[in-house]
Model the fold of this input.
Amino acid sequence: MDRALIPTSDPDWTVREIGHDPLRENSRGARFAISNGFLGVRGTHAIHHGGRWVAKSRTLVAGLFDTPDEAQGIPVLVATPDWTHVRIMLQGKPLVHRPGDGSSQQRILDMRRGALLTESRWLNASAIGVRLQTLHLASLSQRAIALQLIQLEIEEGGVDVTLEASFERLDNGLLPERVEQDLGVWHAISSNRRLAIAAALSLRIDGRDVPATLCSPFHWSWTWRSRQGQIGCLERLVSVTRSDTTDAGPAGDARHALGIAQELGWSGVVAAHEAAWASRWRRSEVVVEGDAGAQQALRFALYHLNGAANPDDERVSIAARALTGDDYRGHVFWDTEIYLLPFYILTWPEAARALLMYRFHTLDGARAKAARMGWRGALYAWESADNGDETTPSHAIGPDRKVVEVKCGQQEQHISADVAYAVWQYWQGTGDDVFLCDVGAEILLETARFWSSRAQPEAAGRCHIRGVIGPDEYHESIDDNAFTNVMARWNIRRALDVAALLRARWPARWSNLSGRLCLHDDELEHWRSVATTITTGFDPETGLFEEFAGYFSLEEINLADYAGRSVPIDVVLGRERTQRSQVVKQADVVALLALLPDEFPGDSGVTNFGYYAPRCGHGSSLSRAVHGIVAARLGDTEAALDFFRETSAIDLADSHAAIEGGVHIAGLGGLWLIAVFGFAGLSLHGDYLSLDPKLPAAWQSLAITLEWRKRRLRIRIAQAVDSVEATLEAGEPMKLIVRGKELGLTCTETPVLSNG
Ligand code: BGC
Done:
């Protein structure tokens, strides 16, 4: 057997499934998906069995948006041809699926190598058997390239074998422009976007190349008579390219990329891909001792996070289901900036920068949305596709199957502050002044300008933001959402900081930028006054933020009475009653506490968490992770671990949520956040990092790898001896504050701070 087809032996590095359950096949498509940030290939079986082909294999291409349904008018990530399809006939009869065959099927996600492997034995209707091993990968070293290897062994000699390898659904979504034997070009219906695919296939039997017996466009077929013990190996290399304009032809690029891969040969492609994965693991690894489940959950999270981004494409961002499924149509939400960006900033700054560049390139869309709604500055789209236009559907089918209006596209405006927050974090984490001057400053200023026009002065000179939706989407058209207002104030203040910084350090840049934005001192003065007068809903007497004006007088519902429910709480209570109640869909004030803990004076963090956590229905996959970060920071590590486990179950167990439509990438980012910002207690400061670790009892140790301002460091926190060991692996000396004590790190020493 070829080494490429043998999985990593360490079970911590694999997700395995034995058996084949057609009912679960679509959810496996998400869990076992492979992706490189440009191509996402769902992990459904490629081998055709039975008379009808029902498995939904699917390849998603980042940024390939089209608006196929003009009536709905919403761009979606469109279907591309399925390049993985294989059909095997033995004595003229197809392979069949019979109940009970399952035990001979294994699907293995090899996370270390970024590959999907399967091992199976199938029979045809006359019980002639074939043993198959497959490997699929989307190359991390050359993102246009995907590879399929299939090794087959017919169990009997003298059998007539037909192997067909094809691309299916050639005209399913995009319009074919040119379809040849091994090259196709398709174009979008409503835009200039085009897709090209080039392919090279070969079959070797017992080590010898066998020419295809029949060929037609994107269809190859081989026929031979088997010999016992004979091994066949199908190799399919494909290259996929996208072009966004009419002048650039994607076909040439696809041929060129394929040529490079062919030069390497499949084993070279595998080796380069594995080396790229090894590098990602080195830069982002998290090791937990004492809790194998948590270790596996973190590996699974890092696997999908490392596969979701592409540092080379500034025109795309990460969708709510990454490239693993169709839910949310490939649209981008605040999920990226709040749940994913911290991971990239601190382990893969090049990817983080590209993701923020996407927001820069869509800034005009955000300006247009603000202007259309009568405000100034930039209001980002709640759901964003390729050009920054608002793409949230106006209506959807609610949990009670009635059509409901979706107001998020108009009212969920905190997204603008979330983007600003990520820009600031990126700058804090990387010290990338060029980015701040050329890109970040403009985003911060334009979003601050939006908030300063959005918050309106009323009685007693207080400014209010009325008619919004906060992260808690159960409550619409509310006034003064604490999350929105405090984030807006923070956004304005950081914009004022950046204005002062540019003016002092890069005056030419400031005069150019402020001139272009027509930003004068009197406007900055106005921003300052909005920041000081904005209503936040904080009551110094009780230490509580009111989630929004009037929240405290809504109906209190004891969610403990509904423990064990299998459907979201708004389905149990009904939409109207949920809206009239204090039940929170997802972390809202708690999310504010996670993002801006300094806005919670004294022990008001504990007070707010104690008040809001029991009121939360966790109706979103994003919610528990944020509760986990906060619980860990507040020292309730066991509650935090429960939130961690429930978050990991979303995509790894079949109990919590539907995952047919893709993995919940924000929840996966949240697992990393709980480990790093929660249990390790990391905080970013102007010119240093700090840690305040508190591990759950089961975790003997936690080791994390971080990049910070061109340095790479590894931190290991050991429970038993209560020690923190920090190794600066690369970069200039730096300061790390651990539980208030300062450690000076240099590349030559590994200080250990021990309380034990
Ligand atoms: C959540 C949003 C989230 C979106 C995409 C919704 O259910 O409420 O906060 O951005 O899903 O993940």
Remarks:
- The two ends are 50 Å apart (CA to CA).
- The pocket of beta-D-glucopyranose is lined by residues 320, 328, 333-335, 471, 473, 586, 620, 622, 666 (CB under 6 Å).
